[in-house]
Amino acid sequence: MIEISKSALLVEDSKTIQVYLAQLFSTLDYKLKSSSTLLEVKKVIQSTEGIDIALVALDLSSKESEAIVQFLIKQDISVILLSGLEDESLKQKLLKQDIVDYIEKESLSNLAMLKELLVRLEINKKETILVVDDSSLYRALISKLLKRHNFKTLEAEDGDEALLVLKQNPDINLVVTDYEMPNLNGLGLIKEIRKEHSINVLPIIVISSLDTATTIVDCLKNGANDYLHKPFSNQEFYSRLYLTLSYKENLQNAKEQKDIYETLFHESSNGILLMKGEKFIDCNEAVLKILKLDTKEQLIGHTTYDFSPEFQPDGETSKYKCEQIYKTELERFEWQYLQSDGTPIWIDVIRTTLIIKGENIVHVVWHEISHMKKLENELALLNKSLEKRVQEEIQKNSLQASHMIEQSRLAQMGEMISMIAHQWRQPLSSISAISSTLNLDIIMDNYNSNFFQERLESINDLSQHLSSTIDDFRGFFKENKEMEESTLSTIVESTLQIIGSTLTTYSIELTQDKISNQKVTTYVNELKQVILNIIKNAEDALMESDTTDKRISINSYTQESYAYIEIEDNAGGIAEDIIKNIFDPYFSTKTEKDGTGLGLYMSKTIVEEHCQGKLSVLNTQDGAKFCIKIPIKPTI
């Protein structure tokens, strides 16, 4: 934070102006204190260590504002008047006193001029002005006016003493001199100063009671910057003073800008050229190095085409392309030039048209990019090689993914065979028991037509059930290469028919909270494979847990343009340190049970890459919840 070290006093009853000036002064590192009466002003001064500047509004009561100004001047505080709707005679009266300046406050834009004045007063602290006059009264008067604006002053009583003071103080910025003086007068002093200091370096203002045209012309012709008649008003003096200083500062700024440009032009590492029409008229040393030329004369008067190959790399002639550039006034382009030994080089060219003394001059900047072009070519070749390698890797990864999917399907087929054996065990036992009963009845010659008929129908029903089970498993593993339309309820129900009896055997309760009949277009069998894999993982987790009331819940719903299938168990959840890895290939917590670590990885691949959806997992209060999100109508 900037430490505010300067203080300002504002005497103004307008809250709007108070707020605005508080913000303005804060940008200049001033702390602003406000008041509106003489009594308040005195209290502020007593409680504040040093007031640097005071602003007094003239549209307070006339007597009050006049008394405040006079009091502040006696306290040797610089005063700026804020002129508003006051009596004009009051303003003129106060302007004759020892004030800094006045600002019209009809609008906030006028008040913004105050910032320029305050900045100027800060600059003045570094300026030294020599006051030359044989009258000690006038010297004191002018010095006082200057000090009121923060200038440092030196004094001399005639021209001879002034030259001595100038010699001893080379940092003097301006001379204010009387014309009529003993020994060396004002005109003689001007002539002597101009032998050592130009009009642009050390300005001179002449102050005299002489009003003859000859005197004024002599002073101005011999190097005076301005001529001021005695007597003069304070405001006229300040106006002439700042006009002279501004002229000097503007000349200094112009010289600095010229020096900067010449430095940039001659010392820039980039090539810089000037062109008139199609011809080069000047250049810096960098251009000569780029083209391997010895002197500017080898370039000046020539055109771009003179230093170019017949054809540019794109196949067009350099002459034709030059003509197009001149016609379209192209500002930036790349161009191939020829060095003096015939070596081609690449240049990045920037052209800017300037108007100098009524003529169009083209400012051109060259930046050599031959090395960059070489790298671009190498990069293009490398990209082609990389593209080929990427395609090869994509094909390899695609084949590997196919193998992994097949591996996962084979692993699930092993589990399915176990399910088939489990589902067939009871029907086959029933068929065997019925057959034995019938065979015993035949042996015992205890034949009953109705009993035989019932038992044969039972055998037929059990056989149909077994056949239906085979169809379910065949349909599950049938490879569909195209998407098909089905309902969420059909997909879920056909999956549960496969694993439902296994869950019952292990005393796992399967609940369906809400199953939507929404139609979806997707890879149905692959989606079934995902659901089955998640339920089978939940079954394994429940069998390893200490949970007594083992449960798996499944529900489906739609939201906006997506369908959702959620599968949740109460097996205690997935450890936090591995939940982020469970979809990684070959990551498994069932290695002792021959887990492949591919089930969830391939499930995620199927849902996200094949079905254009999202597979995610999170821990709930009792276990883990998997969410399958697929679009109802996938994008083609």
Description:
The chain is an alpha/beta fold. Helix content is 49%, strand content 21%. It has 17 helices and 22 strands. It has helices at residues 15-27, 38-47, 62-74, 88-95, 108-124, 136-148, 159-168, 186-196, 213-221, 234-267, 285-291, 318-328, 370-443, 449-476, 488-505, 524-544, 599-610, and strands at residues 6-11, 30-35, 53-57, 79-83, 101-104, 128-132, 152-156, 174-178, 204-208, 226-229, 271-276, 279-283, 332-338, 344-356, 359-368, 484-487, 509-512, 519-522, 551-559, 562-569, 614-619, 624-631. It has a five-stranded parallel sheet, with helices on both faces. Strands 7-6-8-9-10 form a five-stranded parallel sheet, with helices on both faces. Strands 12-11-15-14-13 form a five-stranded antiparallel sheet. The longest helix is centred in the middle third of the chain and has 74 residues, at 370-443. It is elongated and about 165 Å long. The mean pLDDT is 84.
SSE inventory with pairings:
Blueprint lengths: L5 E6 L3 H13 L2 E6 L2 H10 L5 E5 L4 H13 L4 E5 L4 H8 L5 E4 L3 H17 L3 E5 L3 H13 L3 E5 L2 H10 L5 E5 L7 H11 L7 E5 L4 H9 L4 E4 L4 H34 L3 E6 L2 E5 L1 H7 L26 H11 L3 E7 L5 E13 L2 E10 L1 H74 L5 H28 L7 E4 H18 L3 E4 L6 E4 L1 H21 L6 E9 L2 E8 L29 H12 L3 E6 L4 E8 L5
Parallel strand pairs: 1-2, 1-3, 3-4, 4-5, 6-7, 6-8, 8-9, 9-10, 17-19
Antiparallel strand pairs: 11-12, 11-15, 13-14, 14-15, 16-18, 19-20, 20-22, 21-22
Helix pairs in contact: 1-5, 7-8, 13-14, 13-15, 14-15, 15-16, 16-17
